[in-house]
C-alpha cells in the first residue's frame, strides 16, 4: 500500500501533466508558507491558477469540493497574496482557485474557479 505522501506526490505529478497538456505553464509546486500551501501555481490565458490537488476515493461518501470550507479558502487566499508580494509581476493576472481531483482510477477532474 502506498503511503499518503507518495499518493500525494503521484497525484500532483498527474495534475501537473494534465495542466501542461491543457496549455498551462507551471510556475511553482508546493508553494508553502507557515499558514498554508498552494499545491500547483500555473498560468494560462492571463489567469493565475492556484490549484489544490486531492487524491480522493469515490467511496468516501462525499466529494472533495466539500473540503473547501471557509478556513481552507481563506488560507489559500492568504498564500496567494503572499505570492503577489514576492512576485509583483503577477498582479495583472486574474486569480483562479481550482481543485484537481485525482480519482482511484487515476482520472483527472479539473474544477476551475471554485471560489
Automatic annotation (TrEMBL):
InterPro entries to which the protein is assigned, alphabetical: Restrct_endonuc-II-like, tRNA_endonuc-like_dom_sf, UPF0102_YraN-like
Gene Ontology molecular functions: nucleic acid binding
Organism domain of life: Bacteria
Stated family: Belongs to the UPF0102 family.
Protein name: UPF0102 protein ND861_06040
Amino acid at each position: 500500500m502506498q503511503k499518503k505522501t507518495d499518493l500525494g506526490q503521484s497525484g500532483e505529478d498527474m495534475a501537473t501533466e494534465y495542466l501542461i497538456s491543457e496549455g498551462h505553464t507551471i510556475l511553482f509546486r508546493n508553494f508553502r508558507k507557515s499558514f498554508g500551501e498552494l499545491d500547483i501555481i500555473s498560468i494560462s490565458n492571463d489567469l493565475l491558477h492556484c490549484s489544490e490537488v486531492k487524491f480522493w476515493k469515490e467511496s468516501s461518501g462525499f466529494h472533495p469540493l466539500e473540503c473547501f470550507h471557509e478556513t481552507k479558502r481563506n488560507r489559500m487566499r492568504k498564500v496567494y497574496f503572499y505570492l503577489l508580494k514576492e512576485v509583483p509581476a503577477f498582479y495583472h493576472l486574474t486569480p483562479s482557485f481550482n481543485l484537481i481531483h485525482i480519482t482511484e482510477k487515476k482520472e483527472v477532474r479539473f474544477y476551475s474557479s471554485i471560489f
